[in-house]
Design a protein that fits this description.
The chain has 310 residues and is mostly helical. The protein is 65% helix and 0% strand. It contains 13 helices and no strands. The longest helix has 37 residues. The radius of gyration is 27 Å and the shape is elongated.
């Protein structure tokens, strides 16, 4: 009797049977979307950039409703110094600089988002069909893409904007016409890879048409690549529009943009630096924020990233 020692007396734990693990103890599987969102939320620089971009956007949209000076009002003193009434002074024609920055930010973001949506749509559709169909369709789309790539985009856009007036939507459409080519190449490469997967072969075997396979199976499986490239296209469009407006071939009055505001006041960089650096800083913050958000999305969608515990 004394020689028999139980597991409880020795401190040894009894073996756990398979049935002892309850369903509550098992971790719940997370969807791919939840994993991507978790990684993105853990990306500190991307989160700071999201907050910055939201702040700039909300200020540009809401503050004009309460700001006492309209962007069209030119009745103030020319080149007034910064004061409580005009925190960033006034322009040469007597317009409040804060109201000009607010209006310019609205148009710059509107143009950039329009460019991103249009360019992404064109690039995804052409790239998906080229990668999936191959053959003549792939060759034709690839040659068209190469043709547009060799055209100097800024010079061609400047000519077209000047010919068709400088309304903001004209600038947006022209810039979108020279922004879809990189998206086509990336989408085409991914579509070629996905078209060899089993679920695509199964769709073909079931009699699904080309359009159904492309839009129901290929495009949804490229949402990560599409999202990242659409985000980066916004940042590129902001800078492209600013470049056009800076050389006087972009947005024309009564429309405006940050690039135009900078162009009108760059000569005051040394004498009245607040007129130049005010819109310039806002433009830089928008561009950097969008680029960092794109970096965060790219890391979140990349399955090789293991820094964030799922």
């Amino acid at each position: 009797m004394n020689s028999l020692v139980t597991g409880a007396e020795t401190g040894d734990k009894p073996p756990i049977s398979e049935g002892a693990l309850s369903a509550e103890a098992m971790p719940e599987p997370r969807s791919q979307g939840a994993l991507v969102l978790r990684k993105f939320l853990r990306h500190k620089l991307a989160m700071i950039s999201v907050a910055m971009l939201l702040l700039i956007t909300l200020v540009a949209l809401i503050m004009p409703l309460f700001w006492p000076h309209g962007y069209w009002d030119s009745s103030f003193e020319s080149f007034a110094e910064p004061s409580a009434e005009h925190p960033l002074g006034t322009t040469q024609v007597g317009k409040d600089m804060v109201s000009q920055i607010l209006r310019g930010t609205q148009y710059s973001l509107l143009i950039a988002i329009t460019v991103s949506v249009v360019a992404t749509f064109i690039g995804v559709v052409l790239g998906a069909f080229a990668g999936y169909m191959g053959g003549f369709v792939d060759s034709a789309i690839s040659r068209l893409t190469d043709l547009f790539l060799i055209i100097p985009a800024i010079a061609a856009a400047a000519i077209l904007v000047k010919v068709f007036s400088g309304s903001w939507w004209v600038v947006a459409v022209v810039l979108a016409g020279f922004a879809w080519m990189p998206i086509v190449r990336i989408t085409r490469a991914e579509a070629m890879s996905l078209s060899q997967r089993e679920f695509i072969e199964a769709s073909r075997a079931s009699g699904a048409g080309t359009g159904r396979i492309v839009f129901k199976h290929l495009v949804p499986n490229m949402v990560g690549t599409i999202t990242v490239n659409a985000t980066l296209a916004v940042a590129q469009a902001v800078l492209a529009e600013a470049a056009l407006s800076f050389i006087g071939l972009g947005v024309k009055p009564p429309d405006t943009s940050l690039g135009r505001v900078i162009s009108e006041n760059y000569a005051q960089m040394t004498g009245r630096p607040w007129l130049f650096f005010g819109p310039f800083v806002v433009l830089v913050l928008i561009s950097l924020s969008i680029n960092f958000i794109g970096d965060g999305l790219r890391d979140a969608f990349d399955p090789r990233q293991r820094k964030v515990k799922a």
